[in-house]
Design goal:
There is one protein chain. With 79 residues, the protein is an alpha+beta fold. It has a domain of 52 residues: Erythroid Transcription Factor GATA-1, subunit A (Erythroid Transcription Factor GATA-1, Chain A, 2-Layer Sandwich), CATH 3.30.50. The protein is built from one helix and two strands. Strands 1-2 form a two-stranded antiparallel sheet. A hairpin with a 6-residue loop joins strand 1 and strand 2. The longest helix is centred in the middle third of the chain and has 27 residues. The termini are far apart. The mean pLDDT is 75. Bound molecules: zinc ion (ZN). The site of zinc ion has 8 residues, from loops.
Length: 79
């Protein structure tokens, strides 16, 4: 008795380079952070985009908050 099928059903995970830190990260369904190697690298990359959007949002919010003349009452006079 000799097993004719020597191939493993599970192939080796393909390694890709993490765009954040440059480490080898497995490109596999198990790696939900791909193409990143870890969650940290993914968060860092997302943080860059988030911070960029936050700056624009912050400026708009700050400009709107600093606009004089707009004084909305807390309780509407509908009583
Ligand atoms: Zn990484």
């Amino acid at each position: 008795m000799s097993p004719s099928t020597a191939k493993s059903p599970i192939a080796k995970p393909r390694l890709v380079r993490c765009p954040q830190c440059g480490e080898q990260a497995p490109w596999a369904p198990e790696n939900s952070f791909r193409p990143f190697c870890s969650e940290r690298c993914q968060q860092i990359d997302l943080g860059c985009w988030a911070s960029d959007g936050y700056r624009i949002t912050g400026q708009l919010s700050d400009d709107e908050a600093g606009t004089p003349g707009l004084d909305f009452p807390d309780t509407p006079p509908g009583r």
